[in-house]
From TrEMBL:
It comes from the Bacteria. The keyword Cell inner membrane does not apply. Keywords: Signal. Gene3D superfamilies: 3.10.450.50. Residues 47-139 form the SnoaL-like domain. Coiled coil: none annotated. SUPFAM superfamilies: NTF2-like. The lineage of its organism: Bacteria, Pseudomonadati, Bacteroidota, Cytophagia, Cytophagales. It comes from Dyadobacter psychrophilus. This is Predicted SnoaL-like aldol condensation-catalyzing enzyme. The keyword Signal applies. Residues 1-18 form the signal peptide.
Length: 150
């Protein structure tokens, strides 16, 4: 029951952020060209691969210079790289499961489940990223509570 409430709340937050941005720009960002949408999708896949593997070598090509990571209020690609490397050093995720993905214009929302090398350790949450022309501009992480043992 708590999990269902959390998921509903996270999706509500995603919808609220997306609608606020749409209102700010005067219309929904759904009008992206198919080429731009594909660049954004490819960039999102690259970012998720970095989260999954800890390999940050491809991030320079998909992160905007003024990128903001709201999960820590850090700016720039180097701060994101450090965050990913530290996450892998501390948690040592064995695998990452994508439970659900949503895309609304510039925004990608990925419901992620990280399972640690000790398979009883699990971190679950929503990774939300805003892209412009294939470059990540902003990122948020909404954790689903504290890391837990299965």
């Amino acid at each position: 029951m708590n999990k269902l409430l959390w998921i509903s709340a996270a999706l509500l937050v995603f919808s609220a952020v997306a609608s606020c941005v749409s209102e700010y720009k005067g219309s929904s960002a759904v009008r992206l060209s198919s080429a731009t949408a594909e660049r954004n999708k490819s960039a999102n896949e690259t970012l998720l691969k970095a989260f999954q593997t800890g390999d940050v070598s491809a991030l320079d090509g998909i992160i905007a210079p003024d990128f903001v990571n709201h999960a820590g209020e850090r700016v720039g690609v180097d701060s994101l790289k450090v965050g990913i490397v530290r996450f892998h050093a501390r948690f040592k995720p064995d695998r990452m499961e994508i439970k659900r993905q949503l895309m609304d214009g510039e925004y990608f929302s990925d419901w992620i489940r990280y399972v640690g090398s000790d398979s009883s350790m699990v971190i679950e949450g929503i990774e939300m990223t805003r892209y412009t022309n294939g470059k990540a501009m902003e990122h948020w992480f909404f954790p689903g509570g504290t890391p837990r043992r299965r």
